[in-house]
Write a structure and sequence with these properties.
alpha/beta; Spore Coat Polysaccharide Biosynthesis Protein SpsA, Chain A; 4-stranded mixed sheet; globular
């Protein structure tokens, strides 16, 4: 039997969390352990978690002190590791970082496990997020690419997760990990298929301070990751033609440029940045899907190198 664990950082999630709790607890294949890290919630989140923990023995609650503010990116990953430190990861085959503002289809995890068992090079995967239109209730795709698992639902083979060194504790952690997978010969992907589509109750790229702030944060993340200005400009223009029209792409671009003007920190891994920019240039010339397929083929020989992985102390700070 393949064992999987879910780790869910959360903070003040009373509005949406029951949807996620119910959809996970009704899965066709239940998790062997679900660690939910309450990152200093001040609403009814703790009492709701206690209610579910009393009903389901696989749910374990870890509580952290209130830091006084919501911290997307570094704060989320710090909370994730606070949960991870309470278990031995080697006891599991798969690990999922899961947000508490989702509705998952009934066979979500069973489907992901089956696909990873069929393809041993699959290191990370997920379904696709959709959100409900506020007026019509129509389901709208968030338009995520196929080349990575979605940040709200990162389902990892433990071996792969250890080998890439876990998640970077910074904004864009959920983009950097997929590129690190490809560097080592693993495949990271997501599928837009009915049995894997999940509802994102808080649309991706939004923020407690509004959509503009969320998209500017994404622009900073792209700068931190090492994305070139050319690629960022093309991506921002593309995003201008998707909801939220114009303003979303503009905010992403301005977040990047502002970070560049301020000489903000970038990821301290020159080989990674070279690998990323070569891939992004290929995406501009060939299209992202074709560029990703070609790169996965080229990197196949890397998959067998040092596969036992890195020790769990090798996480990036």
């Amino acid at each position: 039997m393949n064992k999987y664990i879910i780790v869910s950082p959360c903070r003040n999630e009373e509005e949406f969390m029951r949807n996620t709790l119910d959809s996970v607890c009704q899965q066709s294949v239940l998790p062997d352990k679900w660690i939910i890290v309450d990152d200093g919630s001040k609403d009814d989140t703790p009492s709701i978690l206690e209610e579910y923990a009393c009903q389901y023995e696989f749910i374990k609650i870890v509580r952290r002190e209130n830091r006084g503010h919501r911290s997307v990116g570094p704060g989320v990953i710090e909370a994730f590791y606070a949960g991870l430190e309470t278990i031995s990861l080697d006891d599991f085959d798969y690990i999922c970082k899961l947000d508490l503002d989702l509705e998952l289809p009934f066979q979500y995890f069973e489907t992901l496990i089956n696909r990873m068992e069929e393809n041993l090079r699959l290191g990370a995967c997920s379904g696709k997020p959709y959100y409900r239109h506020p007026k019509s209730d129509e389901l709208i795709s968030e338009g995520c690419g196929d080349e990575n698992a979605i940040g709200a639902s990162k389902f990892y083979r433990v071996e792969c997760f250890k080998q890439i060194g876990g998640f970077v504790r910074q904004v864009m952690w959920d983009g950097i990990d997929g590129h690190k997978c490809r560097m080592l010969g693993w495949i990271a992907c997501s599928w837009d298929e009915p049995e894997l589509r999940f509802i994102h109750l808080r649309p991706m790229g939004s923020s407690q301070n509004g959509i503009f702030t969320g998209r500017m944060r994404h622009g900073f993340g792209q700068y931190f990751m090492g994305t070139s200005l050319l690629y960022m400009t093309v991506a921002a223009i593309y995003r201008m033609f998707h909801r939220p029209f114009f303003i979303g792409g503009l905010a992403m671009w301005w977040g990047y440029v502002l970070s560049m003007l301020r000489h903000e920190q970038r990821i301290d891994d020159l080989n990674f940045r070279k690998f990323l920019r070569k891939y992004q240039w290929s995406c501009l010339l060939l299209g992202k899907n074709k560029a990703t397929r070609q790169l996965n083929e080229q990197q196949a020989s890397q998959w067998g190198v040092d596969r036992p992985g890195l020790p769990m102390t090798k996480f990036l700070n």
